[in-house]
Amino acid sequence: xxxxxxxxxxxxxxxxxxxxxxxxxxxxxxxxxxxxxxxxxxxxxxxxxxxxxxxxxxxxxxxxxxxxxxxxxxxxxxxxxxxxxxxxxxxxxxxxxxxxxxxxxxxxxxxxxxxxxxxxxxxxxxxxxxxxxxxxxxxxxxxxxxxxxxxxxxxxxxxxxxxxxxxxxxxxxxxxxxxxxxxxxxxxxxxxxxxxxxxxxxxxxxxxxxxxxxxxxxxxxxxxxxxxxxxxxxxxxxxxxxxxxxxxxxxxxxxxxxxxxxxxxxxxxxxxxxxxxxxxxxxxxxxxxxxxxxxxxxxxxxxxxxxxxxxxxxxxxxxxxxxxxxxxxxxxxxxxxxxxxxxxxxxxxxxxxxxxxxxxxxxxxxxxxxxxxxxxxxxxxxxxxxxxxxxxxxxxxxxxxxxxxxxxxxxxxxxxxxxxxxxxxxxxxxxxxx
Length: 434
What we know:
InterPro entries: CEA_cell_adhesion, Ig-like_dom, Ig-like_dom_sf, Ig-like_fold, Ig_sub, Ig_sub2, Ig_V-set. This protein is an all-beta fold.
């Protein structure tokens, strides 16, 4: 629709809102030794001068620099250190900053109408950290008696973490830390807590870890036991064959290694090591052997005992010739009494028990096979007996029987065979007739 002539427009001019001053820290976060700029944003035009202050209020004693824009002249103030410079855009450069430069900074601007404006900034310079010093109340501790106290000593501020054997130490029920994490406490230390401890301090620009402190935890002896070689065991009794050898070992867990004391039937034994050798078992070596293990640091002891007995044969094998006085031309049986009931195999030898002298062997199947010395006149039986047929005088001599049981036990027994010459009947004197 057309407006009528004479219409008057009333228009109001609203001035633009003044830009807000703000200060940015470049780079962020700043580290010790960096060159830092407090960058100013939102500066209005037609300014005459800048003033920079260190602190939270406009105090002449805190003035760093005054800067005249038209002449680019700088005038240092009481807080000037020689490392500051004002840029034409009002920003403040600081060289080689140190943690002491941290704090509040104020920019004051002056315009041509002699009006002032201010902006606030904050600088936090992070230290390049040195390794902390880890202090311990002791590095040699006794299990379940002593307490670990570790102090992470450093003059620097930052977050503290703890490491054990190179891995971050988990926060557990036994890990006691002070609120600032700088003191670690573990009561009644355990053996698994022995190892290398370190603490680490960090801030946004730096991380530094201490040298390790190695803790040793002494423990034991515990679960002392005696184990044996070359013997059979029934409960706490060790059985040894006649003339056999036996080694008894004293086994325990201890740090450091314990001292060993052995006794035999209540009397101190000469061995002071972790084992005792019994050679050539006889009746007088039967008895109770006791091992006492003592930790020289924890002052704890543990002991174990075994009863050593000589193994008595349950049967005695014998060989009897039948008949007892064999003669030439007759048969003889070398009859075996008390042979092993768990017999696996046996062999007969003409002389010593060597392969060239083997007469025959009986296998587990019950069959026997001839050996190199077999003459065709020998025969074996299931009870280990040997039949020799049609004796001759050369059959006189030593015969050896060797048996092997299912458990691998070997026994050797020999017998001496004496073959007598056959006697001819007596013939009377007679005279041939003429």
